[in-house]
Amino acid sequence: MEPIEIGIAVTAGLLLVVILGMRVAFAAAIAGLVGLIWIFWSKKGYAPDQFGWAFTVAAKTAGQVPHSKVASQALSLIPTFILIGYLAYYAGLTRALFEAAKRWMGWVPGGLAVSTIFATAGFSAVSGASVATSAVFARIAIPEMLKVGYDKRFAAGVVAAGGTLASLIPPSAILVIYAIIVEQDVGMLLLAGFLPGMVSAVIYAGLVIALAMTIKGFGPPVGGYSWRQRLAAVPATLPIFVVVAVIILFVYNPFGGAAWGTPTEGGAIGAFVVFCMAVYRGMRWPELKKALIETAKLSVMIFSIIWGVLIFVRFLGFAQLPTAFADWIGGLEQSPWITLILILLAYAVLGMFMDAIGMMLLTLPVVYPAVMALNGGAFVSAEESAFGMNGVLCGVWFGILVVKMAELCLITPPIGLNCFVVAGVRDDISVQDVFRGASPFFVADALTIATLLAFPAIVLWLPRLAMGN
Amino acid sequence: MASASSVLADDSLVSRLDRRLFRVEGWLALVSGLAVFSLMLLAVVSVGGRNFFGQPLPGYVDWIEQAMPLIALSGIAFVQRLGGHIRMDIVVGMLKGRALWVTEFVTTFLVLLLVIVLIYGSWAHFQRSFDFAAPLWSRDSSIDIALPLWPAKLVVPVALFILGLRLVLQLFAYGRAIASGTASPVAVPLIEDAATQASREAESVHDARVDEETVRDTPQSRDI
Amino acid sequence: VEWNVSVWGKRRAFTEHVEKMKELVEQKTNGEFTMNISYGGLSKNRENLDGISIGAFEMAQFCAGYHRDKNPTITVLELPFLGVDTLELERELSEVVYDHPAVEADLARWNATLLMPSPMPQYNVVGKGDKPSKLEDFSGLAVRATGGIGQAMEKVGAVPTSVTATEARQALDSGIVQGVAFAPHAHMSFGTVEGGQWWTTNLNPGTVNCPVVVNTDALNALSDEHREALMSSVEESLDHYVENYNTNTMGKWDPTLEEKGIEKVTFGEDEIAAFEEKAAGPIAKAWVEEMNGRGLPGQELYDLVTKTIEEKKAQNQ
Ligand code: NA
Ligand code: NA
């Protein structure tokens, strides 16, 4: 068998065991290990006495990956961004945001759902992980929505979808992962996510209002707050702005001077600010311990997928699959726009079966060079490019599009991490309920993607500003 | 996903071993969390040193790279105990009783095989960086301040070894469940529906209870 | 026979000898002996020696300074102020050192045989902010410099600051470092020339040594004909590499500086001599002592290097 055929066979096997319910991280690692053994053995013509050699080499090659791939400075942003989210919960920021949003937005149709969307958007500015955001809001927003008679499926769906905003609005662990895979500037990607995140939130809110207005008794408004009460809710949310300012200043200094440091440092300093705030608000060792264990748990979960999938990716490297795919895409004779849209659609399909990080790790080494080639190469100027932007900005724009697609996977069955987490927090809501409740948001996400495709400036405005600086 | 699963406990040997191992796993998870916390402090020291004392922390990156394997791996068995590693449960979610436990047994067994192979491979990775005869026992060092890499590399086989113990224990528990055909086996994470069903059953027969400690000490606890 | 070759990054001046090797070997064996060059798909660059040792791939490139403890002997070539001034000299010097029995034994621990060097010119600093007019101005500046070059910069009061090559530009832009030491091709590919304002033309503190190695078992398993095709292509591949680096990369360097408006900083000969005196001797001495502590012939290797440089320079005059 040719290496590429081995690659395809093993990939099919991987999908099978994942569907049978094996933990994704381990399934990918097993597939990668089997694939490596296969490739090395085939190199020796499948001679029976060479199997031992092939097995040993494959085991040692795979055994390198967990340490090697995880020991990276850039990846250290992921646990720090997760820690910020949990500390912010203990600093009382989650409840403060939801309370303020409720008082200001509660009166519109679907008021509490709209409030949840904007509160998650605000919380996204301190939380780097979608899953963590959904987890904390499931504890706060769902009970309130159920109290005023929301459908429990919809209430859960709103929280699951709102959580995805955390990955666009900086800080964002997944934008960091994208930047690392494609070797782009992390700071620029974090900046680029800001406006699309806001646009996404507005489109979500619009959808909720439209639903509430068309379906009777869908989401009753919550009114009756005086302006005094509204203003009183604001101060408690102000710490969010401090953290946002800190993180932004570490990425890009809007006052024209140098940024204060690297995004890695910005994330850590942001976490430290929130930590001080949480201690001030009465967090002590038991709460801190809980936050640390929560952080550890989510980090371990994410990193297990990272190294598991990377064992598989290592095998793909030996099978030479990435090169074959890039050649194929490069050889297509159709409009680059159509190819780009097809790629995004492929992500939507793939995203149903995979988690966001695994999907990006698996595909980007292959797809990113192909997209750069579509635009006219990594060093193309805006004038000569297919998408009207230079190579660097195309990398940023595509990154935001991919991350938005990856976020969509968080709320699509059968593997939609955010929905699992929401169902996990709430005893009374099943995963199927959350998936059903989140389904209207596919439409909103499709609208957002279309908007970002049609108006790349939404993505590129801030990065251009920073570059011109 | 079984992320919200509960683990049942009773007085059987496997359940007692489960809880003892879980205590160790809990400590290791806390180590992982503390490592994240120390990353944060490290950045404060580094930024502060650079901006206020004109003296950046030497080897900042090297230290981060040392801490990362600890963060990523030391809690791996803890997460397995809680059923927190993500998976698709559309198929297993439809299975019940023996069919479910047989499926779980088979996939868990495959994972155990993987883990054994990876312990061997990551141990070899550690050994290549370790040399009793060398200064600091180091045969592989970091790029800037030449920290020995073997301690960080040793984290992997050790964490996987604990995971291996956990998997053996789970296999044992699934084996018992296959033999007895129970709907409420102890010492393994139960998927949501099964868990609800099991605890209801447990209440009625009084021979099993939801492990109190699991509820109290884990992120699954619903009270944070 | 197909060999897998593990390098990293993109195809660039730094990998041209490997690409040429592939071409030549395939040509000479009528396509019987092929090479599949993978840019990062097979291993992380700092673990290429591990991969060679395992036998996962047959050929790889790495840099000595990535992991001093893995290859202590060849770090002699990264000592500061050895006085290597051309790529040709760097190439000849590396080849002499690679033939030393202690070096061969060092690499044999990894089941590796040294095939050829990837000679690079002297590193120099691209910086941002106040331009240093004398060496004392480096005092208190954070400079991204690793290995022997970092130790040398420390001697003039600079603070060697660890940022990865890929973060170097961000670090320069954000003021974490005020200078970055790289070879010209790296200054161009890691983008430090975009934000830089000045460039030191003659600091020349040293360079980094990045050999190409092969797995010894795989080498021994080759048929005589194939091994001959491989070994006979080494010099030709290196000729191509050096020619390409000198004409294309170095040819592009001055226009790049001009285009980006980067000012050239040239230090007086006395100053450089003083810097050299401060850095070269003590660092070399410490290196020799460390090697002796490991039971390696440190002095012998150091003497081999200095003697070879003298001889070759004399020959070329
Ligand atoms: Na965020
Ligand atoms: Na999905």
From TrEMBL, chain A:
<dbReference type="InterPro" id="IPR004681">
    <property type="entry name" value="TRAP_DctM"/>
</dbReference>
<dbReference type="Pfam" id="PF06808">
    <property type="entry name" value="DctM"/>
</dbReference>
<feature type="transmembrane region" description="Helical">
    <location>
        <begin position="337"/>
        <end position="354"/>
    </location>
</feature>
<keyword id="KW-0997">Cell inner membrane</keyword>
<feature type="transmembrane region" description="Helical">
    <location>
        <begin position="112"/>
        <end position="142"/>
    </location>
</feature>
<feature type="transmembrane region" description="Helical">
    <location>
        <begin position="187"/>
        <end position="211"/>
    </location>
</feature>
<feature type="transmembrane region" description="Helical">
    <location>
        <begin position="231"/>
        <end position="252"/>
    </location>
</feature>
<feature type="transmembrane region" description="Helical">
    <location>
        <begin position="12"/>
        <end position="41"/>
    </location>
</feature>
<feature type="domain" description="TRAP C4-dicarboxylate transport system permease DctM subunit">
    <location>
        <begin position="13"/>
        <end position="458"/>
    </location>
</feature>
<keyword id="KW-0813">Transport</keyword>
<dbReference type="GO" id="GO:0022857">
    <property type="term" value="F:transmembrane transporter activity"/>
</dbReference>
<keyword id="KW-0472">Membrane</keyword>
<feature type="transmembrane region" description="Helical">
    <location>
        <begin position="258"/>
        <end position="280"/>
    </location>
</feature>
<dbReference type="InterPro" id="IPR010656">
    <property type="entry name" value="DctM"/>
</dbReference>
<feature type="transmembrane region" description="Helical">
    <location>
        <begin position="74"/>
        <end position="92"/>
    </location>
</feature>
<dbReference type="GO" id="GO:0005886">
    <property type="term" value="C:plasma membrane"/>
</dbReference>
<feature type="transmembrane region" description="Helical">
    <location>
        <begin position="438"/>
        <end position="462"/>
    </location>
</feature>
<keyword id="KW-0812">Transmembrane</keyword>
<feature type="transmembrane region" description="Helical">
    <location>
        <begin position="154"/>
        <end position="181"/>
    </location>
</feature>
<keyword id="KW-1003">Cell membrane</keyword>
<feature type="transmembrane region" description="Helical">
    <location>
        <begin position="408"/>
        <end position="426"/>
    </location>
</feature>
<keyword id="KW-1133">Transmembrane helix</keyword>
From TrEMBL, chain B:
<dbReference type="GO" id="GO:0015740">
    <property type="term" value="P:C4-dicarboxylate transport"/>
</dbReference>
<protein>
    <recommendedName>
        <fullName>TRAP transporter small permease protein</fullName>
    </recommendedName>
</protein>
<comment type="subunit">
    <text>The complex comprises the extracytoplasmic solute receptor protein and the two transmembrane proteins.</text>
</comment>
<dbReference type="GO" id="GO:0022857">
    <property type="term" value="F:transmembrane transporter activity"/>
</dbReference>
<keyword id="KW-1133">Transmembrane helix</keyword>
<comment type="similarity">
    <text>Belongs to the TRAP transporter small permease family.</text>
</comment>
<keyword id="KW-0812">Transmembrane</keyword>
<keyword id="KW-0813">Transport</keyword>
<feature type="transmembrane region" description="Helical">
    <location>
        <begin position="100"/>
        <end position="125"/>
    </location>
</feature>
<dbReference type="Pfam" id="PF04290">
    <property type="entry name" value="DctQ"/>
</dbReference>
<keyword id="KW-0997">Cell inner membrane</keyword>
<dbReference type="GO" id="GO:0005886">
    <property type="term" value="C:plasma membrane"/>
</dbReference>
<comment type="function">
    <text>Part of the tripartite ATP-independent periplasmic (TRAP) transport system.</text>
</comment>
<dbReference type="InterPro" id="IPR055348">
    <property type="entry name" value="DctQ"/>
</dbReference>
<feature type="transmembrane region" description="Helical">
    <location>
        <begin position="145"/>
        <end position="169"/>
    </location>
</feature>
<feature type="compositionally biased region" description="Basic and acidic residues">
    <location>
        <begin position="200"/>
        <end position="224"/>
    </location>
</feature>
<feature type="domain" description="Tripartite ATP-independent periplasmic transporters DctQ component">
    <location>
        <begin position="39"/>
        <end position="172"/>
    </location>
</feature>
<keyword id="KW-0472">Membrane</keyword>
<feature type="transmembrane region" description="Helical">
    <location>
        <begin position="60"/>
        <end position="79"/>
    </location>
</feature>
<keyword id="KW-1003">Cell membrane</keyword>
<feature type="region of interest" description="Disordered">
    <location>
        <begin position="199"/>
        <end position="224"/>
    </location>
</feature>
<feature type="transmembrane region" description="Helical">
    <location>
        <begin position="26"/>
        <end position="48"/>
    </location>
</feature>
